[in-house]
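seq as requested:
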Amino acid sequence: MQGRSLLFGNRMLDNRTHPEPMNNSFRLITYNIRYDNPADGDNAWAYRCAAVAALLQQYAPDLIGLQEVLKAQLADLTATLLDFAWVGVGREDGQTQGEYAPIFYRHARFELLATDTFWLSKTPEQPGSFGWDAACVRIATWARLRDKQSGATLLMLNTHFDHRGQQAQVESAHLVRTFLNAQSPPSPAIITGDFNCTAQSSAYQQLTTAAEMTGSPLLDSQFAAQTPHRGPSATFNTNFADPLHEKIDFVFVWPGDTFGIQQHAILDEQTQGRYPSDHLPILVELALAA
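struct tokens:
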């Protein structure tokens, strides 16, 4: 894989242009890897798997939130990402059927304390349940993790909102915020995913606007970073190539004052003029605020 713009290097920041890393900082990537669809032809998973794995290894995150992952794709990635454990279930049956929204965590850095998945519907505990005007079953997987380096506990939630149902997007955003607000004891949270909506959408506003019933709003890490955003401004492409379209993938933190965001980047590596997916990954470097 040849990088068009190697933003962070292999876990080494250029201190001439970047601030010194925060104490206990860690890296996170969110990435919709595109489901294994044989109809994609030369862009089918068999031809992209190595490039996706190489990108994840190159940037060496400590936490990864993936979307559109089928069971066989999980097997391919776990065979490569040997330093990681993962959690998640298939959205169709709560076991192995359908797309996962898995969370990978570097087991030398993080310890899993608890995990579960809920469905983005009126019956979030019911596997396979549809929500509102959604075209597909949609889920959110979460993991409560202890940072072995700092001893701090955090929550990571990874999700994939519906691509058609605008009501489903708004209601899913409300459900995510309600879930976070109900945590007892509360934990600082990182929310990753393909939200299938832009920063101008009603769903994004539902996530990021103060509301009495759902507590503190989510903070978009791009606008909280200590240094300017790096890379392109969009994350979605068609046909695994330029041009890029909207930014519909995000990394949020909650509450906003509990994390220091050091870096935010959209990674645009290509192999022979093609992206490894029809989405670009987002990389964030952050730490719990002292």
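The longest strand covers residues 110-119.
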